[in-house]
Structure formats: C-alpha cells, structure tokens
Design goal:
The chain is α+β, with helices and mostly antiparallel strands. The protein is built from three helices and three strands; from the N terminus they run βββααα.
C-alpha cells in the first residue's frame, strides 16, 4: 500500500489492490479528505492486506497541511465555548 498527497489536492492510494480492474496504468483510489482515506485503509485491512501500523495517526498529523482549506479538520481542536456567569 502506497499513499501520496497529489499536487492536485487529494490523497491517492497508488495502484490500489482493492481495484480489481487490473488496469495498472490508472489504478488507484482518490480521497478528498483524511477521513475518507482512513475509511479506505480500513477496507485494505478488512481485505487482509498488510497495512503499516500507525498509518492513520500519521495521516491525522498531516491533515491540516494536506487539507488547509477544509473547514472541519479531523484533528483540529474545537474552540472552547465562553464561560457563562450566573
């Protein structure tokens, strides 16, 4: 399993083994969010493929860099609501 960040703004699972078309010139899976790629990685695990331990954590660490314009980052902390005085 080999995942890259495309210069076109998506994560790409290169020559994805889940694609059974056997067209290795264009085979792959494009994910437009970190969450989508993590779900794809789960599919590889469920298919019995070897997947690097901690891969999801690495993708989450890179989420803000990979998708800087996405409003709801998976690893972005939520703002603390203002306190209410009684």
């Amino acid at each position: 399993m080999y995942i890259i960040m495309s210069s076109k703004g998506f994560l790409f699972c290169v020559v994805c083994r889940l694609d059974d078309s056997r067209d290795f010139t264009s085979a792959g899976f494009s994910a437009y969010s970190t969450a989508e790629m993590i779900a794809h990685i789960d599919s590889h695990r469920n298919a019995g493929h070897d997947v690097l331990d901690g891969l999801e954590s690495k993708l989450l660490e890179d989420d803000l860099e990979n998708f800087p314009n996405r409003p709801n980052h998976t690893n972005q902390t939520q703002p603390t609501p203002p306190s209410v005085e009684e």
